[in-house]
Amino acid sequence: MTDTHNQRLIEHGFPCHQVGAETQRERDTGKAPPTHRLHVWWARRPLTPSRAALLASLLPSEADTSTFLRQLGIERVEALLPRDVGAPELWVISEDKLFDRIEHDEAGQEWLVVDALILRRLESENQRRAKNRELIQNLIDRDPQLKHDALLQRWRAENDALPEPLPREGTRLRICRVAADPAFANPGLRFIDT
């Protein structure tokens, strides 16, 4: 008989999809064919599922899976670009050079101060998003049924143009860290070695 009041996250609500995707990324070095990576005694052990199993065994089933994933180091770092109206646009930071520029204030908030390098990266991001929107439109033109595809809609939403005008030099962009979804194709995922 199981005690339903004392269930652990590993028993109920474990985010298998995200942990599995991170495990695949961790183990796939791409240096040898898959048959050579099945098991070798000196092989690196699957750290992500081991850490996930231990942590999920300790946490209650009601634990927030987003916090759980971030505790495993599966997170996405986003800069919030203000808009005149509505919610800020998210810019996923994926470059180590930019991570080094993140500042912390005394209240624990994280900020990225806009300078010439950040402006160049924002312009590059706008160009990347424009190419993605063009690719998405080409896919929909070839197969109109894709217009209602959930994955394509998500991809389209994540590739909206950055708000104009771009922030001026000296502007502080708030940084937000959220649980990443390694199973979704996004170049901005950051995996932290813990």
Explain this structure to me?
The chain is α+β, with helices and mostly antiparallel strands and 194 residues long. The protein is 36% helix and 16% strand. It has 2 domains: 4-71, no CATH class; 74-191, no CATH class. Strands 1, 2, 3, 4, 5 and 6 form a 6-stranded antiparallel sheet that branches. β1 and β2 form a beta hairpin. The protein is globular.
How many β strands by DSSP?
Answer: 6
- CA radius of gyration: 20 Å
**Helicity, in percent?**
25-40%
Please mark out the parts with pLDDT under 50 across 5 or more consecutive residues, or reply none: 186-194
Summarize the helix and strand pattern as letters.
HHHEEHEEHHEE
Distance from N terminus to C terminus (CA atoms, Å) equals: 36 Å
Number of domains: 2
Number of helices: 6
How is the quaternary structure best described?
single chain
Major sheet, described briefly? 6 strands, antiparallel
Instruction: Choose one word for the global shape.
Output: globular
Strand content: 15-25%
Q: Brief overview, please?
A:
The chain is α+β, with helices and mostly antiparallel strands.
